[in-house]
Design brief:
Organism: Gilliamella apicola
Number of domains: 5
Family: Belongs to the phage GPA family.
Radius of gyration: 34 Å
Shape: globular
CATH class of the largest domain: Alpha Beta
Function: Possible endonuclease which induces a single-strand cut and initiates DNA replication.
Protein name: Replication endonuclease
Pfam families: Phage_GPA (PF05840)
Number of strands: 17
Distance between the termini: 103 Å
CATH topology of the largest domain: Alpha-Beta Plaits
Strand order of the largest sheet: 6-3-5-4-7
Helix content: 40-55%
CATH architecture of the largest domain: 2-Layer Sandwich
Length: about 800
């Protein structure tokens, strides 16, 4: 049998394929022997080799079709994210099958994959001595391939790891030795945190102040709290995730007029989905007057604000028209200027094809270049004593690279000087490259015979907001419908965080908006009333003139914004607008424009079918929950406790809320219970980072109460056990009744609050007398069983 087999002729690949087809026909005829798996002829390049371990999802189809080319295509696809490389892999496979290996391999060499690799190298992480980068090196290296949910989970893990890392660092000899030569121990911790963040290319809070040598201990405490907070890391990682994904899309050629102008299809889709989610969230929320409980639908209020694109567009046109009226009245002449970045900032040519000298930058890099050029122009004009005013609009080329359209007004005798100054700085960098003289800078005089100055820029304002009245207009950049392209432009600005519109000179718009909140009322102030009347009438020209003119400086404004100091969740001082005042009169002229404190609350589902948002509010006004809220506020105010809306929400939710080291408040069986707790370092080592950072104070995800995380896991368990013990002793603690029957407030309790002789204080006196540590009582609360 062996001899006969050896004499049989060897079958070639074509004969084997024919044999397999015949076998399949036979099984089709027989029927019952038909195999469950479809039989296909093997490729003429079939191999018995096992797939390599490094084979990616993108490469698997290519391996099955052309395994002998693996070494070639693997060098291009090995590190390419799937959302970028999938298209190129399919295109490569199609070309290989239809036109052969030469055409397909040439395509692979000339497509955008090489540029993608260069872009990825910009975000490469060199962990070095950073323990944080070493721990999360793998996840951060593939950040653009992760889902948003994965990014959020990664942010939480990094925040926890960073917190534990700082705690461990405090116990090392390195920290103790570093403190010897430093006046501030907090500064040593901050420098350690900077070393951890450096490979991640993430800027730490207050880094600018640190470089100037002006950072304070309080700022360091806030910075370390942020570095241990999930939400802070989420904002940073999501920002990097979005930038890297769109940067790779630009490198791959997915952002151009032949593919998707201004922004990639993925970017536009994500923007639309985020807009939809935001809209749904707004529909499910109300704003509530914290004093009266009156509510209004949040989505209706947003539609009435500057967040509405139509209102934002109208306001811009009013301001632009006001500047033009001032120019006509005082004899200023206008000019329409276009500033464009050098060719190295562009990824794709205007007619298609990759730019060979592209520097691998992002639209943000090009925007920084334009801002730098404009800063030089503005400084030179100031040195020459030349004043200008107007507007500038930033919009993208088809490949996402921004350019500026500027409409400015100036004195006629200064026009030539302005043009020469702008021209020199616009071509200062790479000004000798081909076409730079006419492509990089354009200066066009406004001719009234052709149209108004506002008409010159109206098209760009509409294109960059909502495409109003551009239904039948064609985009010169892409050849597509302008109104449709407005969505892509807005998605582009949102993704890269580029400010589209900016006023040059004139009075600030913030004061204008605050005055318009007051409406037509009179404030009995001769300094403010005329400005208020102009703002209420929507007359930007009159408002600007009353504020000091189009060339007014901030220090000479007639009406300015008044701010108040407030603290955010990190106890960081922030400024909030409170009203307006006139520097001419002084503090006595202050007018409050924010008379009502509003809080965002979820809609009451039971009242969601009411006829109007106001009707929804009237139901809430007399609800039991509203009664409890008002009662809690009165009790806290009576005890002179500083609180906010989030504290009230947490109390109503049944959570114990700590207002300071000595006072904890909780609802227990419709009573507001006050727990006066002695503070000592032995209970849970509650020392802030200013006391050598033994503990971190952070805010939990719900932002409802403070969580105290210590370096000892057992101590954290004791804290949780401590809360349970607090519930057990609620019955004996001093309390105030806050609810009896629905919709009814209980009578005010005229009894005097209990003093230091209450039962809880006696318990702590007993502990001190018996020399029992508070932490021991937390472990064994039965110690007090015999206490009477």
């Amino acid at each position: 049998m062996t001899a006969i087999t050896q004499n049989l002729p060897t079958l070639n690949n074509r004969a084997k394929s024919a044999l397999l087809l015949a076998m399949r026909d036979f099984y089709d005829t027989v029927g019952k022997f038909l195999p469950t798996k479809h039989i296909q002829p093997k490729s003429q390049y079939a191999t018995s080799r096992r797939p390599p371990k490094e084979l990616t999802i993108i490469e698997r189809p290519l391996w099955e079709q052309i395994p002998h080319e693996y070494d070639y295509f693997h060098s291009y696809f090995c590190d390419t994210p799937q959302f970028i490389g999938g298209y190129f892999a399919r295109k490569y496979a199609t070309l290989y099958q239809e036109k052969g290996s030469k055409v397909a391999n040439t395509y692979l060499r000339t497509c955008g994959l090489i540029r993608c690799t260069e872009v990825q190298q910009q975000y490469a992480i060199n962990a070095g001595k950073s323990l944080l980068a070493q721990e999360f090196y793998k996840q951060l290296s593939i950040l653009p391939t992760l889902d948003k949910i994965d990014v959020e989970e990664l942010a939480g893990k990094i925040a926890d790891y960073m917190h534990n890392l700082i705690i461990k660092f405090l116990e090392t000899d390195e920290f103790k030795l570093s403190c010897v030569g430093e006046n501030s121990h907090e500064l040593v911790i901050y420098k350690f945190a900077l070393e951890q963040l450096k490979p991640l290319k993430i800027t730490a809070p207050y880094f600018a102040d640190y470089k100037k040598g002006e950072i304070s201990e309080q700022q360091i405490v806030i910075a370390l709290a942020k570095l241990s907070d999930d939400s802070w890391w989420q904002s940073k990682l999501k920002r990097q995730w979005a930038f890297q994904r769109e940067h790779l899309a630009i490198a791959a050629g997915q952002v151009q007029k032949s593919a998707s102008p201004y922004a990639s299809r993925t970017c536009v889709g994500e923007w639309r989905e985020q807009k939809r989610k935001n809209r749904e969230w707004l529909k499910n929320q109300c704003i509530e007057n914290t004093e009266t409980g009156e509510q209004f639908e949040l989505v209706l209020q947003v539609d009435k604000s500057n967040a509405n694109p139509a209102i934002r567009r109208c306001e811009l046109m009013v301001r632009m028209r006001g500047f033009e009226d001032i120019a006509d009245e005082f004899g200023y002449e206008g000019a329409f200027i276009t500033l464009t970045a050098p060719s190295k900032y562009h990824a794709v040519h205007a007619k298609g094809g990759f730019v060979k000298n592209w520097n691998g930058g992002t639209p943000r890099d090009a925007q920084r270049y334009l801002c730098k050029v404009w800063a030089k122009i503005r400084a030179k004009l100031n040195r020459e004593g030349i004043k200008i005013f107007g507007f500038r609009v930033a919009e993208p080329h088809h490949d996402g690279t921004p350019h500026w359209h500027i409409l400015v007004f100036m004195l006629p005798e200064n026009k030539d000087k302005v043009r020469n100054i702008m021209y020199s700085y616009a071509l200062e960098e790479d000004g000798s490259e081909q076409g730079a003289q006419y492509a990089r800078f354009k200066f066009e005089n406004i001719e009234k015979e052709k149209g108004s100055a506002t008409g010159y820029i109206a098209k760009y304002i509409s294109k960059n907001i909502d495409g109003y009245q551009l239904d039948n207009e064609v985009d010169d950049e892409t050849g597509q419908n302008l109104k449709e392209m407005a969505k892509n432009v807005t998605a582009w600005a949102s993704r890269w965080g580029i400010r589209q519109f900016q006023q040059i000179g004139g009075a600030p718009v913030t004061v204008w908006r605050e005055l318009r909140r007051l409406g037509s009322q009179k404030v009995e102030s001769p300094a403010i009333d005329p400005v208020l009347a102009a703002a209420d009438a929507g007359d930007w020209a009159a408002y600007t003139q009353l504020q000091g003119g189009a060339m007014v400086q901030r220090k000479d404004l007639r009406v300015r914004i008044s701010y108040e100091e407030a603290q955010n969740q990190f106890e960081e001082d922030v400024k909030k607008i409170k009203g307006v005042f006139s520097p001419i009169v002084g503090a006595a002229s202050f007018i409050c424009t924010r008379l009502i404190n509003w809080a965002i609350v979820s809609k009451n589902r039971s009242d969601s079918d009411a006829r109007s948002s106001v009707n929804n509010c009237t139901e809430v006004k007399n609800s039991p929950k509203h009664d409890q809220r008002q009662k809690i506020k009165k009790e806290l105010e009576k005890r002179k406790i500083i609180f906010n809306t989030k504290h009230i929400d947490a109390i109503l939710a049944g959570n114990p809320v700590s207002f300071n080291e000595n006072l904890c408040v909780k609802i227990f069986e419709n009573y507001l219970v006050y727990l006066n707790l002695p503070y000592s370092s032995s209970d849970c080592d509650c020392k802030l980072l200013k006391n050598r950072g033994k503990v971190k104070v952070a805010i939990n995800k719900d932002r409802e109460k403070l969580l105290i995380k210590t370096s000892d896991p057992e101590e954290n368990l004791k804290n949780m056990e401590y809360l349970k013990i607090l519930d057990e002793i609620m019955v004996t603690a001093p309390k105030t009744k806050i609810a009896d029957k629905p919709r009814l407030l209980v009578k005010k309790d005229n009894s005097k609050p209990k003093k230091s002789d209450d039962l809880l204080d006696e318990i702590f006196k007993y502990l001190e007398k018996k020399n029992i540590k508070f932490s021991d009582w937390l472990k064994k609360p039965n110690i007090l069983v015999n206490y009477k």
